[in-house]
Structure formats: structure tokens, C-alpha cells
């Protein structure tokens, strides 16, 4: 931060809070006065005309809210059912797998299968409706715990109520060694009507079978209705507002009076001409929604006859009538009380606002001045501390990079030094034997010269990397990666690490050496993880232009980063490596360079992918920086 900006920021911290406090105090005081005056005048003028309208809107909104909740539950019924039966099958599959692994070295496969059948056959759920079945690839039923007559029978041509051969789908699941949901129509016990049923099958490899279960949507929907009604019975709004639900046979499903639930409204005689009232409300509900005014024979809390305005909405697919209402005597009492409150409140409020706002403004001013001074001191202290830490971290990162580069130089120099030594020794030996020809001499000296030139070029490459520069230059991403590979290729070759590239030809401006440092840090981290494994070692690099950004993905097949560590990889001094090979600052400095110097983002995540018909998992680092 330059000196001029620092002075501006210090002044902002010092004066902005006190000034803002004064302005806000005055504005809030004025707004409160104007708002209360406006509210008072408005409410006093329209209170008598709008109270019923507001209550009608309120009860409509409450009914719509409950209706929306119920329709949401209806829409999610099939989804929730699928999740439920899938979870059950996964549970059974895990039980079967554990039993197989437990006894596979102790009992025969047939004995183990009988144990699995006995165990799964005894597992019943969903209030006795749910059970597991096992089918093999011929369509033979191996387990059917609630209907033993089907066990051992070939049902491959079995059809549901609509002619669908669902056993064929089970056989297909086995052949594909997969899992799937299936829907068909089947009969409940003692019921001739077919109902929609959803099942889930999962392949069990040790016996080449599927384990499955299913549930009727109708049965699951009963559980949903029960949860819905439990929720609605708890809903209250305003002071005494509640939601009632009546089915189209006029039975109470939800009501503020618990004794009414399950009873027929006609038997309770809760209003005059109750049959006509219910019939009219049912017609309104079946046609959609609407208001209805009537005399309720017994008002809750008072048990007195009272005129009530209700709003009802029909849920025709469940034959439900959802409604609520308000009583006119409550409105008249509220109107009188509200008007008295407004008159008293307004005149006392104006005096209090002036006194309190003046006191608070003075108090906030003193506090804000103190906080501003405190913030200013803290800012200066924090700025100094950050500068010191950044200098230390930058130095550590530079030293760590230098150590890596020295190791790379050593790897780069081994082969040319060996060639020079071999050529020199060869011509010397040939000379002693007086057997050195001109051709052999010139070939040997050419090899020595080529190797020396390679050594010189290597020194130039590494010297350019360490050249201090803070100026953005025109760069090309392919060329930057080629420079990176030159600096690292010796170590990567000796460790049998293959780099798979998909790099587009993209030009952009950047701080080249800092960008190189980031690429080297990420690739070295991948190298350190890959050398722990004996399988084929790959690093994949994708670089492309996405909109106005350069997007780079670098990922490996080293197994990925532990989930509990992945959020910490960019923290200073955090490392999963041994302290002898990891300082924990490489990725931190890379993140600092990308975010603060190159104005981009650097993120880390685990990824799964397929390469050469093999499934791999590894850590993926994504760099995104603006091109322009």
C-alpha cells in the first residue's frame, strides 16, 4: 500500500464513523417522526374500512401457505418413497455382504446363502408392509418372505395388472450388474383393485442375484397424510387463528378442538343450518377456493354464537377442504383498542423520540470516536504485522523454490556430465594405445562441446526463473508450460511420471516468474504424492479460454486429498508431508500470488475420472485468471 493511500485510509477510519453516526442519528430520528406521523394519520383514516379486508387477506394467505405445503409434500411423495426403499435395499445389501465376508472361509456358498435368506427374510419394516425379495438371473424367486408359495418358482413371464413383465426388468438388472427403480401395478392382500407400486433392485455379485424391496404409493401416501395433519394441527397464527381440514364426507381431520378430530361435523352441530353451510363450502372447495360467511354456533373460548367469515380451498386429489376464518366480534374489539392505542402512542412518542434520539446521538458519537481511534491503532499494528509475515513467508517460499531448483539442476546435469566424462576418458584411453583416429577424436570433442552447451543452456533456464521482475509481460501459456517442463523434466522422468497435456494456444499478460513459481509448486506437490504409489503415475493438464478468463486444471491420480485437510491446503505452514520434505508454504504462496498479484482464483478439490479404461481419483487444482 503506498503512502498516499495509507493516509487516505487512516483519515477514513478516523472521521467516517463519527460523521456517519451523527448523520444516521439525525436521519433515523427524522424518519421515525415522519413515519409515525404518516402511520398515525393513515391508520386512523382507513382502520375502519380496511380491517376486514386485511383479515380476509390474512386467512387467504394462511390457507394458501398450508395448501402449498401440502402440495409440496404430495410432489415429494414419490421422491421420498424412492429414497426410502433405496435406503432399505442398500441396508439389506450391506447385511448380505457382511454375512458373506464373515462366513466365506468357514461355510459353503449354499450354507451362506441360506443364512442370508434367513436374515433378510426376518427383516420386516413399514408397519409390517415392507419385506425383501431375492431373484436370480433366470427369473426364479429365491426369497419371498411374505408369500412363500412363490419361492423356487420361475416367474420370468410374470405380468402385473397392466401386462408389464417386471421380472424381465429384474433379469436385465442382473445381466447389467446394476441397480434401478421399477414401477408396476399390483394387488394388495384381500383387494381386487391394482395399485401403483415402486420397487428398487440392486445386484448382489457373490450369487449373481438382485436384492430388492418395494412399497405401494398409496400406503406411503397415508404416512405423508399423517405427517401433514400432525403439522397442520400445530399451526397457529395471530392470537387465536387456526387451520381446519374437513374431508368431502364432512369428517374433521384437523381442528383446534382435539375432540372434534375424527368426528363428523354434522354430528357436532357446530353452527346453524350446518348441513347447508357444509354443502356450500364443499361446492366452493371443489370449484377452487373462496370466502363464506355464516353463524358459528359455538365460538372457541366463549362457546357463544358468532358470525364468522371463512376462506376455504379444495384439495380435490385428496378430497380435502382446507380452511380458516375470523370472527367479527374480534374485529370490533380490535378496532376500538387499536384506535385508543394510536391516540396515546403518537403524542407520547414524539416527545420520547426527541429526548432519546438526542441522548443516543451523543452517546454514539463518543463511542464512535473511541472506536475510530481504536481501529486506527489496530490497523497500523496489523499492517506492520502483515508486512513482517509476508516478508518472512516470501523469503521462505523463495528458499524452498531455490532448493527445488538446485535439485532439478543436479538431475539435469547428470547425463551431460556423464557424457563428457565418458568421451574424455575414451579419447584418453585411445591415445595411450596410440589407436585414436581423427574421426573418433572429433566425435568425442563434439559430444563434449554439445554437453557443455546443454549445461550452459540449463544454467540460463534456471537463472531466468530466479530473475526478479514485477513487470507484466506478454506471455503464451504453452510456452510457460514448456519452460516449466524444462525445469522439472529430469525429476519427473526419473520418477516415471507422465504428463498428459491439452493446452490451447493462448496469449496473455502476466508476471511470468511468479506464474512459473505457482505451476512448479503445484506440479511438485503432485510429484511428491505420486511417488508414494506403485501404479502408473499421471498428471493431466488442461488449459483453455473460458469467456475472458484463462482456465487451467491440473490433476493427478495419487488418490486425492483427505477430506478433513482439503479446506486447509492453502493455509500457511500446513502440510500433509513429512517435515523433512514439506514446509507448508508452497501452496499458500501460490494462492497469494494468484489472488493478490494476478487477480485470479486458485481452488483445490478431489476429482474422479476415467483414463485408458481405468477409473482414477486425485487432487485437482484449478487456476482462473483474467486474460485482459
Automatic annotation (TrEMBL):
SMART domains: Cache_2, HATPase_c, HisKA. It is a multi-pass membrane protein. GO terms for molecular function: ATP binding; phosphorelay sensor kinase activity. One of its GO terms (cellular component) is plasma membrane. Pfam families: dCache_2, HATPase_c, HisKA. Residues 372-399 form a coiled coil. Residues 408-628 form the Histidine kinase domain. SUPFAM superfamilies: ATPase domain of HSP90 chaperone/DNA topoisomerase II/histidine kinase (SSF55874), Homodimeric domain of signal transducing histidine kinase (SSF47384). Keywords: ATP-binding, Cell membrane, Coiled coil, Kinase, Membrane, Nucleotide-binding, Phosphoprotein, Transferase, Transmembrane, Transmembrane helix, Two-component regulatory system. It catalyses: ATP + protein L-histidine = ADP + protein N-phospho-L-histidine. It comes from the Bacteria. The keyword Transmembrane applies. It is found in: Cell membrane. The keyword Nucleotidyltransferase does not apply. Its main location: membrane. The chain crosses the membrane at residues 12-34, 346-371. Its EC number is 2.7.13.3. This is histidine kinase.
Amino acid at each position: 500500500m503506498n503512502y498516499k493511500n495509507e493516509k487516505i485510509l487512516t483519515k477514513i477510519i478516523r472521521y467516517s464513523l463519527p460523521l456517519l453516526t451523527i448523520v444516521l442519528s439525525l436521519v433515523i430520528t427524522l424518519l421515525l417522526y415522519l413515519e409515525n406521523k404518516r402511520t398515525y394519520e393513515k391508520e386512523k383514516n382507513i382502520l375502519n374500512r380496511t380491517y376486514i379486508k386485511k383479515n380476509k387477506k390474512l386467512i387467504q394467505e394462511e390457507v394458501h401457505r398450508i395448501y402449498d405445503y401440502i402440495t409440496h409434500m404430495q410432489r415429494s411423495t414419490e421422491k421420498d418413497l424412492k429414497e426410502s426403499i433405496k435406503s432399505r435395499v442398500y441396508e439389506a445389501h450391506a447385511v448380505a455382504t457382511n454375512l458373506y465376508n464373515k462366513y466365506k472361509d468357514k461355510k459353503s456358498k449354499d450354507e451362506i446363502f441360506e443364512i442370508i435368506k434367513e436374515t433378510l427374510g426376518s427383516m420386516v419394516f413399514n408397519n409390517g408392509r415392507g419385506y425383501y425379495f431375492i431373484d436370480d438371473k433366470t427369473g426364479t424367486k429365491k426369497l419371498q418372505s411374505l408369500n412363500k408359495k412363490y419361492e423356487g418358482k420361475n416367474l420370468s413371464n410374470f405380468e402385473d395388472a397392466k401386462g408389464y413383465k417386471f421380472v424381465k426388468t429384474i433379469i436385465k438388472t442382473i445381466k447389467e450388474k446394476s441397480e434401478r427403480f421399477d414401477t408396476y401395478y399390483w394387488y394388495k392382500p384381500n383387494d381386487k383393485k391394482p395399485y401403483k407400486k415402486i420397487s428398487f433392485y440392486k445386484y448382489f455379485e457373490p450369487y449373481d442375484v438382485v436384492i430388492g424391496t418395494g412399497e405401494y404409493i398409496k400406503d406411503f401416501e397415508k404416512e405423508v397424510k399423517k405427517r401433514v395433519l400432525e403439522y397442520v394441527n400445530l399451526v397457529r397464527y395471530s392470537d387465536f387463528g387456526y387451520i381446519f381440514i374437513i374431508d368431502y364426507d364432512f369428517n374433521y381431520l384437523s381442528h383446534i378442538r382435539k375432540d372434534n378430530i375424527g368426528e363428523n361435523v354434522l354430528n357436532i352441530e357446530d353452527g346453524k343450518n350446518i348441513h347447508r353451510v357444509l354443502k356450500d363450502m364443499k361446492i366452493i372447495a371443489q370449484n377452487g377456493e373462496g370466502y363464506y360467511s355464516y353463524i358459528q354456533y359455538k365460538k372457541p373460548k366463549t362457546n357463544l354464537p358468532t358470525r364468522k367469515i371463512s376462506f376455504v380451498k379444495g384439495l380435490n386429489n385428496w378430497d380435502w377442504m382446507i380452511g380458516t376464518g375470523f370472527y367479527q366480534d374480534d374485529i370490533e374489539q380490535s378496532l376500538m383498542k387499536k384506535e385508543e392505542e394510536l391516540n396515546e402512542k403518537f403524542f407520547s412518542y414524539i416527545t420520547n423520540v426527541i429526548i432519546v434520539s438526542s441522548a443516543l446521538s451523543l452517546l454514539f458519537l463518543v463511542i464512535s470516536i473511541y472506536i475510530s481511534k481504536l481501529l486506527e491503532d489496530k490497523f497500523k499494528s496489523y499492517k506492520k504485522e502483515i508486512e513482517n509475515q509476508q516478508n518472512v513467508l516470501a523469503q521462505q517460499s523463495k528458499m524452498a523454490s531455490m532448493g527445488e531448483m538446485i535439485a532439478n539442476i543436479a538431475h539435469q546435469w547428470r547425463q551431460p556430465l556423464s557424457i563428457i566424462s565418458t568421451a574424455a576418458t575414451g579419447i584418453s584411453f585411445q591415445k595411450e594405445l596410440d589407436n585414436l583416429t581423427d574421426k573418433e577424436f572429433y566425435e568425442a570433442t563434439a559430444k563434449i562441446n554439445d554437453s557443455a552447451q546443454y549445461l550452459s543452456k540449463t544454467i540460463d533456464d534456471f537463472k531466468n526463473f530466479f530473475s526478479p521482475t514485477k513487470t507484466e509481460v506478454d506471455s503464451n501459456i504453452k510456452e510457460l508450460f514448456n519452460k516449466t517442463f524444462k525445469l522439472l523434466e529430469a525429476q519427473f522422468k526419473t520418477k516415471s511420471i507422465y504428463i498428459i497435456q491439452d493446452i490451447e494456444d493462448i496469449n496473455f499478460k502476466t508476471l511470468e516468474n511468479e506464474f512459473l513459481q505457482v505451476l512448479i509448486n503445484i506440479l511438485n506437490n503432485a510429484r511428491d504424492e505420486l511417488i508414494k504409489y506403485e501404479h502408473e503415475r499421471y498428471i493431466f493438464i488442461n488449459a483453455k479460454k473460458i469467456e475472458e478468463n484463462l482456465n487451467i486444471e491440473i490433476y493427478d491420480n495419487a488418490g486425492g486429498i483427505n477430506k478433513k485437510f482439503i479446506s486447509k491446503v492453502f493455509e500457511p505452514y500446513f502440510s500433509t508431508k513429512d517435515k523433512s520434505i514439506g514446509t507448508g508454504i508452497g501452496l499458500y504462496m501460490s494462492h497469494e500470488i494468484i489472488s493478490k498479484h494476478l487477480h485470479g482464483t486458485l481452488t483445490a478439490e478431489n476429482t474422479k475420472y476415467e483414463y485408458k479404461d481405468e477409473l482414477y481419483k486425485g487432487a485437482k487444482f484449478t487456476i482462473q485468471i483474467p486474460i485482459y
